[in-house]
Amino acid sequence: MVQSFDNGNGASTEAERRMQLIFSLRRNGVTDTRVLNAIEQTPREMFVEKLFLDAAMEDTALPISCGQTISQPTVVGLMTQALKVQPRHRVLEIGTGSGYQAAVLARLCRRVYTIERHEPLAKLAKQRFEKMGLHNVTTRLGDGALGWPEQAPFDRIMITAAAEDPPAKLMEQLAVGGIMVAPLGHAGDLQHLVKITKTDEGLEYEELTPVRFVPLLGGVARE
Q1: What is the rounded (10 degree) CA torsion for 30, 179, 210, 31?
Q2: Of the listed 12, 24, 71, 98, which one is catalytic?
Q3: Helices in 48-97 by DSSP H: which ranges?
Q4: What pLDDT, in 10s, does the model give residues 133-161?
Q5: Are the beta carbons of 199 and 177 closer than 8 angstroms?
Q6: Which domains does the chain have, with CATH numbers?
């Protein structure tokens, strides 16, 4: 949890809290300057529930509606860093959630396509993107494991929910030379963040760090 500076009035300023968060990310292995800048420029307070607004700049996961969470900023940073997103890339995100991760990605690539199975979350995230003027983010309500075939192939794919194995349809939609970052493992257990590179010869796996994500579920939830 991030320790705040005191400004003499018993409260830290927003700028100081944001700076402290960036220091925390650096300590935890997020060193890519472009990724750090994208996180610094993305107001996390716009993506958290009002009840947890005071904790928006802390380096911790927080609950959101529909039984989901907004990821710890360190995890967002490590996943984004591993994805190695470039300015001309088209990125598919599975699991929009609050929209925070997609908003960070949008500052790094040409276009983000993001899929959410919970209708209330999808609607709210879309409103946030519009309010922020992120016109390079396209949202869809749907089953993330099926991907977005009509927009494939994608240069990068990020999955923000845990699966035992990379979904086959998503691997098909990843371009050769592309990278997928996903938490792999059983729901409820500690999973591992894995970077998968698709080559002409096959798939290369690199295990990054232990994580804990909600499970990747099929279908659409209207409430």
Answers
A1: -10
A2: 71
A3: 73-83
A4: 999 999 999 999 999 999 999 999 999 99
A5: yes
A6: 14-211 (3.40.50.150)
